[in-house]
Amino acid sequence: MVSIMQTLIPQLRDDGWESLLDKVVSFCGKYNILVLDMNATYRVEQHYRVDVFIVAINSQLQELNNRFSESISELLRLSATLDPRKSFNSDDIYKLVTKYYLLDFTEQDKIELKLELQHYELDNDPKLKNVT
């Protein structure tokens, strides 16, 4: 979800101004609120689009990137593979163990885990899809 938002927010910044402006104008028209003519002077649109809209979007994107670095996003994505209702990926589970749980597993544990994951992948019980 984080990586999706990191993709969608820049798209909103680049392509969302017209859609937002249309919604604002529609809302204002519905409630008889005076709307500034954005085409009257360049400064009005410049202020609302660049100084408010784009600054707010960039601030949100920066906050998202600060809170969810690439390594944190990867950890979240890999952790999601532990949910049996999702698509099972033994490689991701093994990567999670070898990259983020170095002190919790011995080399022998890792070898055994890899084999167990391969067995589980071949003998995946459909009842696990309904686990909550």
UniProtKB/TrEMBL annotation:
InterPro entries: AtLOH3-like. It comes from the Eukaryota. PANTHER family: GENERAL TRANSCRIPTION FACTOR 2-RELATED ZINC FINGER PROTEIN, ZINC FINGER, MYM DOMAIN CONTAINING 1. This is Uncharacterized protein. It comes from Artemisia annua (Sweet wormwood).
